[in-house]
Design goal:
14 helices; 45% helix; 3 domains; alpha+beta; disordered C terminus
């Protein structure tokens, strides 16, 4: 096999193959044997017409394209493997069909997008700015409130009507213009009043109702309601209250601390919460600084990313999105219907993100190569420990289950960790105060 390789851009290569005349003749004969059953020749049953007769009727080039299609893949694959060309798309094949002669060599060119080269800019000694995450009283109280909610108990209300914050068990039947509609009827439905999970106005009208009371609630479906046949329509819901319950929160005292933690006093428990939140804030600030440095290095780099790579990255993003929705019981087709989108329009929304992800990844790989960064066994072990912890698995069992691909992925992750650590050694990180968060409810 004879071929030449030419780099025609930072992300494209051109391979020019010479198909010898004898091999072309052999490939053409194979093409005839494959295609002869599809050619109609008067006086012959399909598949029995002589090759020369078919060529006289349809031209000698009738089998050329199939001959080249049979010959090229094996030789193309062998060439890109030998030359270590990382193709990212199918090649664009070009043949000058008019110049082909049966007893002469054939020239075939293949242009293919390849893994792009990165021209690095500055990636050491970078100066970046981040918003520093801090721990305030609101954060501490919000964290304690979560524990308090978990330790709460539900009690039945017998001596008063419905109030905001109560949970109501009810039956309801909805109609539009006096006609019942799909999904508008339920028995024993529970609803937290004030959660705004039902149609606007529904929950407000339930305040003041008593157990066993029945009432007609007049509401209007939002204009953007997901069921188009109900959007903007006025509806009447006949509601009966079966029971009322409320949530009682425990007092914030030593007994509460002992119930929700390993501490015997509330002061010790609270201090542990402060330490926990501070540790998380420190980790988030470290991650934010690393991300800022990596992103700046990517901004300083130049790379021409082939569209095929971007499209594959987008497909990966959409697959992850579809999987997350499936865990929530949502189908992608329903999501697209509700949001009025198509797969194509959704893909375009993620194009910039996909390009950004790829540029960062390619930049890090280029830095790893430039700095000859290789993780050692300790780096890989550390990454393995972190992954096992993230998945909540025993370390030794996790190691036993690892496939070769997963081991390689852990090695890659360890390489990235070491590369980012090198970039952070002489980086300058300026911290500014984060915007004041919205006021959170006190735990008191």
């Amino acid at each position: 096999m004879s071929y030449t390789v030419e780099k025609i851009s930072s992300n494209k290569a051109k391979l020019t193959f010479t198909l010898p005349a004898d091999e072309f003749a052999e490939a053409t004969q194979k093409a005839y044997l494959k295609l002869r059953g599809r050619v109609n020749v008067p006086g012959f049953r399909k598949g029995h017409a002589p090759r020369k007769l078919i060529e006289r009727m349809y031209g000698p080039d009738i089998f050329y394209e199939e001959a080249i299609n049979q010959w090229l893949p094996e030789h193309y694959d062998a060439a890109i493997e030998k030359e270590e060309i990382k193709a990212v798309d199918q090649p664009e094949v070009d043949v000058d069909w008019l110049s082909i002669e049966p007893d002469k060599d054939v020239t075939i060119t293949c242009e293919v997008y390849v893994y792009p080269e990165v021209t690095l800019g500055d990636y050491k000694g970078l100066t970046v700015e981040i918003e520093k995450e801090t721990v305030g009283e609101d954060d501490i109280n919000a964290r304690i409130s979560r524990d308090r909610t978990k330790a709460s108990r539900t009690v039945e209300v017998l001596d008063r009507p419905v109030e905001n914050g109560d949970t109501v068990n009810m039956d309801y039947a909805g109609t539009v213009d006096g006609v019942a509609f799909d999904g508008g009827t339920a028995q024993g439905q529970t609803l937290e009043i004030g959660s705004n999970t039902f149609i606007p106005g529904f929950e407000d009208q339930m305040v003041g109702m008593c157990v066993a009371e029945e009432k007609d609630l007049n509401v209007t479906f939002p204009e953007n309601y997901h069921a188009q046949e109900l959007a903007g329509k006025a509806a009447v819901f006949h509601v009966k209250v079966n029971s009322i319950s409320k949530t009682e929160l425990p007092e914030l005292d030593d007994d509460f601390a002992a119930d929700v933690s390993d501490f015997t006093t509330f002061a010790e428990y609270r201090e542990s919460i402060v330490e926990e939140l501070q540790k998380k804030a420190d980790e988030n600030n470290k991650t934010a600084a690393e991300n800022a440095v990596v992103e700046k290095a990517a901004d300083n780099a130049t790379v021409d990313i082939p569209k095929a790579m971007v499209d594959r990255e987008i497909n990966g993003i959409l697959r992850d999105m579809q999987l997350r929705m499936a865990y929530q019981g949502i189908k992608m087709e329903d999501y697209l219907k509700w949001t009025g989108q198509t797969v194509e329009s959704l893909a375009e929304q993620y194009r910039n993100e996909a390009e950004r992800r790829l540029k960062i990844r390619l930049t890090l790989e280029a830095i790893e190569k430039a700095e000859n960064i290789e993780p050692d066994e300790a780096d890989i072990e550390q990454e393995t420990v972190k992954q096992a912890e993230r998945m909540g698995k025993d370390l030794e069992e996790f190691k036993k289950e690892l496939t070769d691909d997963q081991k390689e992925a852990l090695k890659d992750a360890a390489t990235v960790t070491r590369t980012v650590a090198m970039m952070m050694q002489d980086a300058v990180v300026n911290e500014k105060a984060a915007p004041e968060p919205e006021k959170k409810e006190d735990a008191e």
